[in-house]
């Protein structure tokens, strides 16, 4: 296994540093591998923003991994990242400025910055195809979403959603800062009603609404409101974490974490997973999952990440009820469950050790043929990824990071 290049991430500083490798560390090849499939691993010294490293691999990492070898470049990261084919997208540039940042793998096999669109604050984004994507820039209007070309990384226009906003609910409204999801030619955009003076992050008024936009015509077709379930927010807007997942079954799954901020205090409620079925644009009133469906003792449990593999939904959930915001960071406090989509049969994946709260990194990483689980457990000394086995009921260690910090993101890059 040979590392092609490594991008080191330091939040506050900008400089270039070329790091030599010892004979015991993988080095940057003079003749990069021409295999179209590569893997990128992000590790970080801190839980969220902080020092860390991007590294691109020709093959799946195995065994003990040093993610700091080869050439390095100082950068900045929110923790976690998103991908489209062989592109990586992050939400801040090397100077720590918010925006849509694109990395690509150059002809020499090295990861390089390949475009940046500066934004004023949270830069939620989604890529539809090589020439079309959407992002949120509050500096251009909290009730607008922006269009961009991912190939050229140029802004190409915007869609104004003010016509579907009901300011009688609240005049402080954000659209696209939490959810920008794509399914079957439709764009689903959060409409978050926040108390006056609030950020639209955790402090939304309890009115879960999405705008449904036809991508080809850019017509806002309707708004849908989740008024039949007890849900409270749409995601973690300041980070790379996304609270939605397009399953391989064609259904679009959403997760409400269950907490909100009211009058400066957090209120805690059960997390909830729900969906929009394939071929439809309305919420499915006949399917949802609460933490108690995974573990009967969880009346106010927290579900944070979702993964999809071989027709089953995989969910990370706390091992006890969460009633205090500080409890999210409990060490070794989250378990992995599989959920049968049709009959909701639940199985705890006992072979996956308990792990820490996923934060911006999330817990599940899907490649073309595997589902990986982030496991950080100081008690057993594991700091890496497990992989769900072919049977879907068990898992095995994939690799353990021994240098470079905690794993904060893993993905397959391909043409």
Describe it.
The protein has 415 residues and is mostly beta strands. It has a domain at 1-117 and 399-415. It is built from one helix and 33 strands. The strands form nine sheets. The chain has a five-stranded mixed beta sheet with strand order 5-32-31-30-29, with no helix packed on it. Strands 1-4-3-33 form a four-stranded antiparallel beta sheet, with no helix packed on it. A four-stranded antiparallel beta sheet has the order 7-8-9-10, with no helix packed on it. The model is unreliable at 5-34 (pLDDT under 50).
Largest sheet: 5 strands, mixed
Any idea what the radius of gyration is? 21 Å
Q: Note the beta-strand portion.
A: over 45%
Total beta-strand segments? 33
Low-confidence stretches: 5-34
Major β-sheet strand ordering: 5-32-31-30-29
Secondary structural class: mainly beta
Query: Helicity level, as a percent range?
Result: under 10%
Distance between the termini: 20 Å
Short description:
The chain is mostly beta strands.
Question: Topology, please?
Answer:
Blueprint: E1 3-9, E2 16-17, E3 38-44, E4 52-57, E5 63-66, E6 72-73, E7 82-84, E8 87-92, E9 98-105, E10 111-118, E11 125-129, E12 132-135, E13 144-149, E14 154-160, E15 172-183, E16 186-194, E17 209-214, E18 219-225, E19 244-246, E20 252-256, E21 259-262, E22 265-268, E23 272-276, E24 283-289, H1 291-294, E25 303-309, E26 312-318, E27 334-340, E28 346-348, E29 364-366, E30 371-377, E31 382-388, E32 395-403, E33 406-413
Parallel strand pairs: 5-32
Antiparallel strand pairs: 1-4, 2-6, 3-4, 3-33, 7-8, 8-9, 9-10, 11-12, 12-13, 13-14, 15-16, 16-17, 17-18, 19-20, 20-23, 21-22, 23-24, 25-26, 26-27, 27-28, 29-30, 30-31, 31-32
